[in-house]
Design a protein that fits this description.
about 80 residues; mainly alpha; 3 helices; about 60% helix; elongated
């Protein structure tokens, strides 16, 4: 027994046709996005400021500061993507 499924003929409106190629895209965050010069500069700035503020004394503290800076740059990238969507 098969369920009744209507035959779909595809998008009809210009807006629907424009959106059609993105149907399979969920969020795009796993796609390869090379770091931009602007993001690289932001990362370096954050690292400098965080090291200046917290003055890491151990490798653990250094790694945590690097992680915070990296995560912040990624969050900012996601915010830009969300605004563009």
């Amino acid at each position: 027994m098969t369920a009744f499924l209507p035959k779909l003929s595809g998008p009809k409106t210009p807006k629907g046709k424009a959106n059609s190629p993105r149907n399979a895209t969920k969020h795009g965050l796993t796609a390869v996005h090379p770091i931009t010069a602007e993001e690289d500069a932001r990362l370096e700035y954050l690292l400098k400021q965080l090291k200046k503020e917290y003055r890491p004394q151990t490798i653990t503290e250094e790694l945590l500061i690097e992680r915070v800076a990296n995560i912040q740059v990624r969050i900012e990238r996601v915010q830009v993507l969300e605004r563009a969507w």
